[in-house]
Structure formats: structure tokens, C-alpha cells
TrEMBL record, chain A:
4-aspartylphosphate sites (modified residues): D53
Organism: Motilimonas cestriensis
Keywords from the UniProt entry: Phosphoprotein
Response regulatory domain mapped to chain residues: 4-120
SMART domains reported for this sequence: REC
Name of the protein: Response regulator
Automatic annotation (TrEMBL), chain B:
Organism: Motilimonas cestriensis
HPt domain mapped to chain residues: 1-102
Gene3D superfamilies associated with the record: Histidine kinase CheA-like, homodimeric domain, Histidine kinase-like ATPase, C-terminal domain, HPT domain, SH3 Domains
SMART domains hit by this protein: CheW, H-kinase_dim, HATPase_c, HPT
Enzyme Commission number(s): 2.7.13.3
Pfam families per UniProt: CheW, H-kinase_dim, HATPase_c, Hpt
Reactions performed catalytically: ATP + protein L-histidine = ADP + protein N-phospho-L-histidine
Protein name: Chemotaxis protein CheA
Limits of the Histidine kinase domain: 381-581
Superkingdom of the organism of origin: Bacteria
Automatic annotation (TrEMBL), chain C:
PANTHER family in alphabetical order: BLR2341 PROTEIN
Cross-referenced PROSITE patterns: STAS
SUPFAM superfamilies in the cross-refs: SpoIIaa-like
Natural source organism: Motilimonas cestriensis
Domain STAS residues, every copy: 1-110
Origin: domain of life: Bacteria
A Pfam family that the UniProt record links to this protein: STAS
Residues annotated as transmembrane: none
This protein's name: STAS domain-containing protein
Length: 122, 728, 110
């Protein structure tokens, strides 16, 4: 059964690139444009991995991460946070909220697939 | 085997063997208790697997058949009886002995121990003992096992202990291990189950998993570590490099040329034995110990912490410490130096020179007045003075190695710029010469090295096309040769194009068309002003200003430069230099009452007066010595010496040579060798031709030191003027 | 209930009909414990395990050890492809000692 990955980013182009790469690698992909949108789309369905941007409107990545870690169904779901070189300051905050994996933007699709493969079985 | 590998294995094996013994003792009471049966099986199975991972073949060979027996027992094929339990206890003891012999540091298991093991195995499988064929088969099986394990000698060993929160944090050990397969082949993996909690105590979301993995991979330590990058906070990771990797670290450490004192961790990172993360972890441990109990606890050396944490093997740490020590020593040596103003050192040497002369004067007087009792004292003083002079001169001696080493960077950068692949090989760096010479040799050397890189070496493609190794070799060599230092710059590049040099020289009017020149003579043309053979000037070695300037610099040091080259094979430039500019081994000659000193190294031979061996041709200014013709110069004429008692009829000839140029110097008297201190001429005389300095003789007289090179030049000019006139 | 009772040719066995992961680990532990306390001999089919991760493997290991301790006969049967892959990756086939039978269909393709 294919694993399901939730991609949360306000940039449509990033969602698209990541989405294409992940689908190409055999994952199912759900896309959301911010934390709030993501929580709505998760709606109790099985998610194996979340990839989330940090800076987003409505609900930013850190707040979203905190929500996820509270959620009984998703508290054990691994999360990859997307960050920029400039946004390293957010990492401490992210770590405190339970983020373990980080991918620095800009990234090439293979980098993202590597990070995903370290966290979920194919 | 490596210390840290051993420790992990031994510790784990001991725990497992204890479990095995307890289970076996229980089995004596309740023979077919499944739990104990399985416990014994698992213990021996895990030991076998771990021994395989760590490359302990003898243990694999012994535990493998034991495991098979336990498997049969477990599956009900073989029945448990007290005899078997007793035998298995012996097997357990034997395994413990094997483990112990490893911890004793024995590379090979002793013959006796192996035999004891075989006896036990024979008892364990009595039916196999009878048939010789089976024994062979059994052995072969063992051999196969050990063959496979031998290959695994070169595996990375990864020890991976997850912390209890790993799963809760969204990390799945399985995924990492699955990903690890991308780095290479997982030769063996053991999932530790023996220290799991009991069912009741188990928290389903806590992680209890530990793994030992043997990985066959060409990846670097950093790359393997990166597999677990997301799990760094949630696992204890130890990566033990394979033997070949260790050898690589050791070789790299050996090669490191440390200019500054690096910290141990930095050295280890430099060679790849340690990752940044591992270093910062270890430093944290170090500083936490410090803050815990700063008063009583001594700071643990970083190396010890690294070995304890099984991050780097002891051998590598030792090597790094050794290297660090040698760098430290080098620096300590350097710091022991006292910086002295070169002028003050010059003054000292000058004074010592005066002392030598004064001593000679005293000696003369003592001899003159025939003071036998003073003679002895004077001789003693003379010895001391000579000692002082040698030591004073030694103060200015430095090894040429440091000057050579600077070219590593030049070669690296320039060859990179030019897309050439050139390796610099330095030999003889320990040869010593005067600091003032070293300082002055740097520029000419730089020029020669750049020249060689620019014009000498071909591109890697061209080299390969010519059947040469892709990488060119540039050699810098120094050696002592009878009071001189010889510096050689050799390349295995394209060599000089004599046709081109000839053509250029003709264009420049340095030679006339069709002039007969030997190979060496053509080569020597490159030292003529304005001659460059490279069609395009580059910013590396410049345009035309080059070899002539180099030659002038070397000449100024009373040295000589020669070039030898073979088209397609390479070029060798040889520079001869005096060890010091302050003292000179001279040959004293006289004209009337004047004394002159010729640097001894340039004297080829002296021919006594009144022999028939030589003839002066006053018209052409050539001297014919036993059929050998060379230009000459008559010192009496050159310096305009007035003869007070009328001209003496008898003269001597001193043949001097610089490089391959020879000339004769005609003098009145030959006095012989002497060692003397050069005193620079005053400013007024610096433009003087034919004289490079002066020295004070023991008698208090002044002797001029001849500039042989200049004299040869003047002599040849005179001779060739005549020749040119004649040929017109 | 994630574990259901099945019968094949008159032989009863249990079937895990859910994923065996961190998300279900707590529940699985409870259900398996109940099962183990009631049965002296049981076969558990892993055919319908929809997903398995490290937490799931841990449960299987500990259940196996617990059964031995209590002297109960526990056998895992009908391992599906994913379960086999995981056991192979971790080199745990020998630990469980259960014969692993590849489903016939897969075997043909293998």
C-alpha cells in the first residue's frame, strides 16, 4: 500500500515540484497551502509523513507542527520541515516543537526523496 | 583487531554467555523448557552473528555447529538429555575461552584451543565423527564460513542503539536501515533482543531496538553518518571504519604537513576519521566533566574520550597524537629561535673575520721571533678562533627545505590555472646554506619553477598522447658538493626546442646564421637577454625577461647556472651556489707585490711557470694549453701593475671555470689555498670590474678577490672582438 | 477488534487484520495479551497486516519471548510480503524460527 505524504507550502511551485517528485517515487500526495488548510485536509485519514514549510500565512509551520504533535492520530507522524539558510533561527523553535528532520531550501528533488526515504519505508 | 571493536564484542558476548549458562542450568532441572531452549539458541545465534560482523572467524566456525544443534533441539529433531546439557555447558565455556583469547589481544587462536573446540564439536555430532568424508565436509563448511567472513574484514561496523523516544518522535529505525542499503551491502545485521524488557513492562511506543550492522561500502564515514542525520538526537551511533579505511587515515595523518599546531580533533576531521558532529559531542562530554567537578577532576584528554565513545580507534588517535607531537616539536623548535637582526649577525661575522686575521698576524710574529713557548698558546687560540668562526657562520645557515616547501603552493595554483597536472617532489630539503643566499635564491627559483610549469609541462592530454604518465613531475633537489650547494630543478616535460632557440637567437643577432654550435651552446643561449621561445607571452612567466635575469641573479651570488634538456624528455636546470657569501675558500696569486684571491671552487688547474704546456697568442688573446684554446687575461695588464724591478720573465697560468666557460688568468706567482673572510668593497669601488670584494691578510695587507665570472666575460669579449675583426 | 478468529479446514487461527505500527502498538499489545492469556496454543496469521514498522516488529519479538516464558506454543503463519521483507532486513527469521512460506502466487513470479 502506497504511503501517503502531506505537503504543506504556500508556494504553489514548491508544492508542485515536491508533488511530482513524490508521486514519481510511488507515494500518494496530499497538498495544502498552509497549516490550517492542512489540518482540514488531514481529516482523520492515514498520513505517513508530513513535509511542511515554516513561513506560511494563516497558520505557520511551527504552530502547525505543534498541532500535529497534539493530535492523537498524527502525534507519531514524522515531519520534515522546510527551511531556508536565512531561517535557521526557526530551527531551534522547530526542534523544541518536535521536528527532527530538516531540508534546506532551495533543494533538488532527489534531496527531498532521500530525506523522505530515511523516514518512511517505501 | 581493533581495540574498540573488541570491547563492544567482548562485553556483549559475556552478557550473552551468562544468559546462556543460566538457561542451560535451568535446562538441567527442566530439560524441555521452550523458553530456556530458545534462550540458549538465541545467545549462541547472536554471538555467532556478532562474531561474523566483527570478523572473529574462529568463533563463527565454532558457534555455527553449536547453533545448528540447538536449532535441531528447538525443532524437536534432537532430544535434550543431561549429557547434551553438560556438553553444551562445555561449549559455552569454550566459547568464553575463545572470547577471552581475543580480549587478550591474540590475533590467532592457539592450536590447543582449536583442537579442544574440534573435540567438543565431534562429541556434539558423534555420527559425523565416524566418516572421514563427513569430517572433511564439516571442515569445508567451516572454511566456507571463514572465507565469507574474511571478506567481511573490510566492513564498516555500525552500532546503532535507539533511545526510547525514537518511535514517538516519528523515527522508524527500519527506514534508516533500509536507506542504509543504498550506501552499500549490508553483509550482516543483528537485531538485539536479549535486553528487551518483559512483556508486562514493555511500553508499546517506546523503542528498545539495538542493531549491529556490518556494511560493505566505499562511502565515507561522513556519508554513512548522514544516513542517520535525522536520528542523531534519538540514537547512539558508533561507526567503526573497516581496516582499509583505518590504513587510509593513518596514511593521511602521516602525510599531513602541519605548519601550525592543529587541535587533535581538527587533525582527525582533516583525514576523515572523525565527523564534526562527533567532535562536538566529545567536546561537550569533556566540558561537562569539567563543570561537574572542576576542583578534583582532571580534564580527560579528548583522544581518550573519543576512544571510550568508540568514535575513533585507539590506533588512529595514537597516530594523530604522535603527529600533533611532532608538529608541536617543530613549532617548539621554531620558538626556541631568537630573532636576531641580520645586520648584527653580519657585524659579528665581520668581527670574527677580523679576529681570524689578527690571529694570523700574531702567528706570523711568533714565527718571526721564534717564540716557542708562545707558539703553543697561539695554536690553541687559533683552534678556538676557527671554531668560533665556524659557529658564527653556522648561525646564518638555514635549511633550504622551507624555501622549497613554499613552491608546493606555487605548483598547485599555477598548474591549476594552466590546466596541467603536476606533482612537486622535494628532496634534499635538509641541505643548509647561508640565509643571505637563501633569500636571494627565492626569486630565481620562483622564476624557474613557473617557467617549467608554463613552458615545460605539456597538458595532461598531450602527455597521454605521447605515452607519458598523465601527471607531470617537477623535482626540486638540493645537495652539497665540495663546498657548494647544488640546486636542481628538473621536469619531465617537453624539453627545450633547440631549433626554435637557434632561430630566435639568429633573429636577435645573438649568433650568425649557420654558426656552428653544440647542443649545450644552443641551450645556453636561453640565458641571453631578450630570448624567449614561447610564442605567446603569459602572465605566468612573462615576456622575454626571464632566464637572463635569473642568470644575473645567480652570478651575483657567485654561483653558476646550467641547463640541460632533451626534446620530449624534460629539462634539468642546475644551480651551483656557494654555501655562504661571507667566507671564501680562495687561491691566492700574486702580481708583483699585489695579492689576489681567486675563489678556489672556480680554479680548474694551475700551470707552473716555464713549461711548454701553454702558449699565449697575444694577437687573438687566446691561450693554447695543451691544444685547448681559451681566452685569457693578464692580471698585470688588467690592473695596470707597475713593475719596480723590471718585468719578471716567468709567469704562471691559472685556469678558471664558471659553468662550462673557461678562461686563463696569467699571474706572476702562485701562493696556494687559503680560507678568508670577504669584506665588501666600499661604495666607491662597487662598480669596479673584475673585483668582487677584498680581504685582509694575516700580514695586514689587503688582497682583492677576483670576480672570476666578470673576468671570463671580459676575456671572452676581448678574444671574440679580435675574432670578429679577423673574420670581417 | 483488529484480531479476528479464522477457521481453515477445521483448524482455528487468529488473524491480525490491521496495521502493526506505532499507531496501533498500544492496542495490539492489549489484544495480543488477552489472546495469549486465554490460549495455550495459538497460530497468528500475518497475512492481513496492512503495514508494519519497527514498533510492530518489537511487539512480535516481545510476544514471542512472552509465549516462551509462559510455556505457550505460538506460531506466526502466512507472513505477507511486507512482513517477510522487514524480517529479512532485520535478519529476524531465525529468531522466530517459524517456517516462512511464500504465497504461491508470489513464488511463481520470484
Amino acid at each position: 500500500m502506497a504511503k501517503t505524504i502531506l505537503v504543506v507550502d504556500d508556494s504553489a511551485s514548491i508544492r508542485q515540484v515536491v508533488g511530482i517528485a513524490l508521486k514519481g517515487a510511488g507515494y500518494d500526495v496530499i497538498q495544502a497551502c498552509d497549516g490550517k488548510d492542512a489540518l482540514g485536509k488531514m481529516s482523520g485519514q492515514k498520513i505517513n509523513l508530513i513535509i511542511s514549510d515554516v513561513n506560511m500565512p494563516n497558520m505557520d509551520g511551527i504552530s502547525f507542527l505543534k498541532e500535529v504533535k497534539q493530535h492523537p492520530k498524527y502525534k507519531f507522524t514524522p515531519v520534515i520541515m522546510l527551511t531556508t539558510e536565512a531561517g535557521q533561527g526557526k530551527m531551534a523553535e522547530g526542534r523544541a516543537a518536535g521536528a527532527k528532520a530538516w531540508v534546506v531550501k532551495p533543494f533538488q528533488p532527489p534531496q527531498m526523496l532521500d530525506a523522505v526515504a530515511k523516514l518512511v519505508l517505501p | 583487531m581493533l581495540d574498540d571493536t573488541k570491547k563492544i564484542f567482548i562485553q556483549e558476548s559475556e552478557e550473552l554467555l551468562e544468559q546462556m549458562e543460566n538457561a542451560l542450568l535451568e535446562m538441567e532441572q527442566v530439560p524441555d523448557d521452550a523458553e530456556h531452549l530458545n534462550s540458549v539458541f538465541r545467545a549462541i545465534h547472536t554471538i555467532k552473528g556478532a562474531a561474523g560482523i566483527f570478523g572473529f572467524d574462529a568463533i563463527v566456525a565454532f558457534t555455527h555447529p553449536v547453533e545448528s544443534v540447538m536449532d535441531n533441539v528447538r525443532n524437536g529433531i534432537r532430544l535434550v538429555d543431561p549429557d547434551l546439557v553438560a556438553l553444551l555447558l562445555k561449549c559455552k565455556d569454550h566459547t568464553a575461552n575463545l572470547v577471552e583469547s581475543i580480549s587478550d589481544g591474540q590475533e590467532d587462536i592457539s592450536e590447543a584451543l582449536l583442537e579442544a573446540g574440534q573435540t567438543l564439536l565431534d562429541e556434539l555430532n558423534p555420527e559425523q565423527k565416524s566418516g572421514a568424508l563427513d569430517v572433511v565436509k564439516n571442515k569445508r563448511e567451516n572454511i566456507e564460513v571463514s572465507d565469507r567472513k574474511n571478506a567481511s574484514d573490510d566492513n564498516w561496523v555500525i552500532s546503532l542503539d535507539f533511545k526510547s523516544d525514537a518511535l514517538r518522535n516519528g523515527l522508524d529505525p527500519l527506514s534508516f536501515i533500509n536507506y542504509l542499503k543504498r550506501m552499500g551491502e549490508i553483509v550482516e545485521i543483528i537485531t538485539f533482543t536479549h535486553d528487551f524488557p518483559c512483556w508486562e513492562d514493555m511500553e508499546p511506543e517506546s523503542c528498545y531496538l539495538s542493531f549491529r550492522i556490518a556494511l560493505l561500502s566505499s562511502a565515507s564515514k561522513e556519508e554513512i553518518k548522514s544516513v542517520f542525520e535525522f536520528a542523531m538526537d534519538d540514537c547512539e551511533l558508533r561507526i567503526i571504519p573497516p581496516r582499509s579505511e583505518l590504513e587510509k587515515y593513518l596514511a593521511l595523518l602521516e602525510e599531513l604537513t602541519g605548519e601550525e599546531l592543529n587541535k587533535l580533533g581538527e587533525l582527525l576531521i582533516q583525514v576523515g576519521a572523525l565527523t564534526e558532529q562527533e567532535l562536538s559531542n566529545a567536546l561537550q562530554v569533556q566540558s561537562s566533566v569539567l563543570s561537574d567537578d572542576a576542583a578534583t577532576q582532571e580534564v580527560k584528554p579528548l583522544g581518550e574520550i573519543l576512544v571510550e565513545q568508540h568514535v575513533v580507534s585507539k590506533g588512529v588517535v595514537d597516530k594523530a597524537v604522535e603527529k600533533q607531537e611532532s608538529i608541536r616539536e617543530k613549532i617548539a623548535q621554531e620558538t626556541q629561535y631568537i630573532r636576531v637582526d641580520a645586520d648584527r649577525l653580519g657585524q659579528l661575522i665581520n668581527l670574527v673575520g677580523e679576529l681570524v686575521i689578527s690571529n694570523a698576524a700574531v702567528k706570523l710574529l711568533v714565527e718571526k721571533h721564534d717564540l716557542a713557548d708562545v707558539q703553543e698558546v697561539v695554536n690553541g687560540v687559533e683552534g678556538l678562533v676557527e671554531n668560533i668562526r665556524d659557529h658564527a657562520l653556522q648561525l646564518r645557515m638555514v635549511q633550504i627545505g622551507d624555501t622549497f616547501s613554499r613552491f608546493r603552493r606555487v605548483v598547485r595554483d599555477v598548474s591549476k590555472d594552466l590546466n596541467k597536472d603536476v606533482e612537486l617532489v622535494i628532496t634534499g630539503g635538509e641541505a643548509e646554506l647561508d640565509k643571505t643566499v637563501v633569500e636571494k635564491i627565492n626569486d630565481p627559483l620562483t622564476h624557474l619553477v613557473r617557467n617549467s610549469l608554463d613552458h615545460g609541462f605539456e597538458t595532461p592530454e598531450e602527455r597521454v598522447a605521447q605515452g607519458k604518465p598523465k601527471k607531470g613531475v617537477l623535482r626540486l633537489n638540493a645537495l652539497h658538493d665540495s663546498g657548494h650547494i647544488v640546486i636542481q630543478i628538473a621536469d619531465d616535460g617537453a624539453g627545450l626546442d633547440t631549433k626554435k632557440i637557434r632561430k630566435k637567437a639568429e633573429e636577435k643577432g645573438l649568433i650568425y646564421a649557420g654558426q656552428e654550435l653544440s647542443h649545450r651552446e644552443i641551450l645556453r643561449l636561453i640565458f641571453e637577454p631578450g630570448l624567449t621561445t614561447k610564442d605567446t607571452a603569459s602572465n605566468i612567466s612573462g615576456r622575454g625577461v626571464g632566464m637572463d635575469v635569473v642568470k644575473r641573479n645567480i652570478d651575483a651570488l657567485r654561483g653558476s647556472i646550467e641547463v640541460d634538456s632533451e626534446r620530449g624528455k624534460g629539462t634539468l636546470v642546475t644551480i651551483h651556489l656557494p654555501l655562504t657569501l661571507a667566507i671564501i675558500e680562495g687561491f691566492m696569486v700574486g702580481v708583483e707585490k699585489e695579492r689576489f684571491v681567486i675563489p678556489l671552487s672556480m680554479v680548474e688547474e694551475c700551470v707552473e711557470m716555464d713549461t711548454n704546456e701553454w702558449h699565449l697568442d697575444k694577437n687573438s688573446h687566446y691561450v693554447n694549453l695543451r691544444g685547448q684554446v681559451m681566452p685569457y687575461i693578464k692580471l698585470s695588464e688588467f690592473f695596470g701593475v707597475n713593475y719596480q724591478h723590471g718585468r719578471r720573465g716567468r709567469e704562471s697560468l691559472v685556469v678558471v671555470r664558471v659553468g662550462r666557460a673557461k678562461a686563463g688568468i696569467v699571474v706572476d706567482r702562485l701562493f696556494g689555498e687559503l680560507q678568508t673572510v670577504i669584506k665588501p668593497l666600499g661604495k666607491v669601488f662597487q662598480g669596479l670590474k673584475g673585483v668582487s670584494g677584498a680581504t685582509v691578510l694575516g700580514s695586514g695587507d689587503i688582497a682583492l678577490i677576483l670576480d672570476v665570472q666578470g673576468l671570463i666575460g671580459l676575456a671572452s669579449a676581448k678574444a671574440s672582438d679580435v675574432k670578429t675583426l679577423e673574420s670581417v | 477488534m483488529s484480531i479476528v478468529t479464522r477457521e481453515l479446514n477445521g483448524v482455528h487461527f487468529f488473524e491480525i487484520n490491521d496495521e502493526l505500527t506505532i499507531y496501533t502498538a498500544a492496542m495490539m499489545k492489549q489484544e495480543l495479551q488477552d489472546l495469549l492469556s486465554k490460549q495455550d496454543e495459538l497460530e497468528i496469521s500475518l497475512e492481513k497486516v496492512s503495514d508494519i514498522d519497527s514498533a510492530g516488529v518489537q511487539i512480535l519479538i516481545l510476544l514471542h519471548q512472552q509465549a516462551e516464558k509462559k510455556g505457550k506454543a505460538l506460531r506466526f503463519i502466512k507472513h505477507n510480503r511486507q512482513v517477510i521483507d522487514v524480517l529479512e532486513t532485520l535478519n529476524l527469521e531465525a529468531f522466530f524460527g517459524d517456517p516462512i512460506v511464500l504465497p504461491a502466487k508470489e513464488f511463481e513470479y520470484a
